[in-house]
Design goal:
Length: 472
């Protein structure tokens, strides 16, 4: 019995040893291939399996542990559509070979690509083409990227980057502006034509879902809709994204301060420019003032500094304003943003039964100053309503009135320089004298601009200034 058991054990070990030997010999076959002469074939197989075009500048080595794979050194990944520019230079990549494809180098295929410590570059001028490429090829054989960096350029200058990139199973994770970003692609199973892109920024609390319609038939334009959530804010929009521009339609937004809709066009190339129409249905001005106080918007902040590349036109209308004073009922405006500044072509405020006010002007910004040069007219239809509103004594004896101001508001010091003033307490076309202008200017700066924007939009402060001026 023992002799039979020993023979059985010996036979089992022999069979296992034989299998191991055969497997070892089979796994060792690729060690004898001449990879230097097969670079073109390997490049073609990598493109066939992963839709990535590469150049191989270094050696190719075969390893069978822990799984059969090729180590390819000094790899240059080409851009995804022109095959001219170098998208990335990588010290080494690994491509995994299926067990059944080892015996013939000309029949190699790869089922997984591993990239470690890659440094990728993406040209924002070709953003549309990059998006199309990834969308149309996102279901290739698995590509796993780890400890890498994605750099996004515009005209040779880096605009932003995603660091510590980990990409696996169509999900990208990394660091974006010191925040954790997560991007995932999913195909809609109902029709297999639409695609969903999920983007999350953990610390900022931003999440978005972008739906691309009929992504398999993209030609020049990307068409779809999107929803963006940020804390209590929600934005939904339909879009058409072209290489040169982004069209927004049926865009709706809502938060605790205001809600409304917009539409328009944003040019991306050859330069950034927007043309937007925005309608705010309801603005809670009382909450807006609380927001300013909470976020410490005082006169020491440079919150009117604009980026030089922020250029475009904005037609902004506010249909209904909720505030404790109920002074301003609605607003219509036409604004133009140019090279870090802004022009107010039109800003009309409906004051209800009191009348109306309009402002025109220009915001100028540079390293030394930030100032608004403006002219304001206040047209009062019923002086009695005006005096009652601000609890002033009506000594004018007139039914209507006009007030005109020309001034410069310095946002760095938050001081007003009153250049010209006329109306109400004087004849319509008679200018205030210099002494009276200095008196008005001093009280505006001491009272109305004492706390920057917080006091500028304070109805009680405005009433206090008007009372001081009337009592003078």
């Amino acid at each position: 019995m023992n002799e039979t058991l020993k023979r059985y054990q010996f036979f089992t070990l022999y069979v296992l040893g034989f299998i191991f030997f055969v497997v070892f010999i089979y796994l060792s076959i690729p060690l004898f291939f001449d990879y230097g002469k097969s670079k073109e074939n390997i490049k073609e197989q990598i493109y066939k399996n992963f839709q990535i075009k590469i150049d191989i500048k270094g050696d190719i080595k075969y390893r069978y542990l822990p799984y059969p794979h090729l180590r390819i050194e000094k790899v240059e990944i080409k851009d995804y559509f022109g095959n001219k520019k170098i998208n990335s230079k990588i010290k080494e990549i690994k491509v995994l070979i299926p067990f059944t494809k080892l015996k013939n180098i000309n029949k190699f295929s790869f089922n997984k690509l591993l990239i470690n410590k890659g440094n990728f570059t993406f040209d924002l001028n070709n953003l549309n083409s990059n998006i199309k490429y990834f969308i149309n090829n996102f279901k290739s054989n698995p590509i796993i990227i780890s400890k890498s960096k994605f750099n996004f350029y515009d005209r040779g200058k880096i605009i932003f980057f995603i660091d510590n990139v980990e990409f696996k199973n169509q999900r990208l994770k990394g660091k974006f502006i010191n925040d954790e970003i997560s991007i995932q692609i999913k195909e809609v199973k109902k029709n297999f034509k639409d695609l969903k892109l999920f983007i999350k920024l953990k610390d900022l609390g931003i999440s978005s879902v972008i739906n691309f319609k009929d992504y398999k038939n993209f030609d020049k334009d990307l068409i779809g809709n999107a929803q963006i959530n940020y804390k209590t804010q929600t934005i939904t929009s339909e879009f058409l994204f072209n290489k040169n521009f982004l069209n927004l339609t049926n865009t709706k937004f809502a938060n605790h301060l205001f809600n409304g809709q917009l539409d328009g066009k944003i040019n991306i190339y050859p330069f950034f420019f927007f043309d937007i129409n925005m309608d705010i249905d309801k603005l809670n001005f009382s909450r807006f003032i609380k927001f300013l106080k909470k976020n410490n918007y005082t006169k020491d902040n440079n919150y009117f500094k604009l980026n030089n590349k922020f250029n475009g036109n904005l037609n902004l209308d506010v249909k209904k304003i909720y505030s404790g004073s109920k002074l301003i009922k609605s607003i219509e405006s036409e604004l133009e943003f140019v090279n870090g500044g802004a022009k107010i072509h039109k800003l009309v405020m409906d004051l209800g039964k009191i009348g109306a006010s309009d402002i025109t002007g220009e915001l100028l910004n540079n390293d030394q100053f930030s100032k608004l040069i403006f002219q304001q007219n206040v047209y009062i239809d019923k002086l009695s309503k005006f005096y009652n509103k601000f609890r002033l004594f009506n000594s004018n004896g007139k039914n209507t009135g006009t007030l005109h101001l020309s001034a410069i508001l310095n946002f760095k010091t938050f001081k007003l320089n009153l250049i010209e003033a006329s109306g109400l307490v004087a004849d319509k076309n008679k200018l205030f004298d210099d002494e009276y202008k200095k008196f008005i200017q001093r009280n505006i700066n001491l009272v109305l601009l004492e706390e920057g924007l917080v006091s500028l939009f304070n109805f009680k402060k405005l009433s206090e200034v008007l009372k001081i001026i009337q009592d003078n």
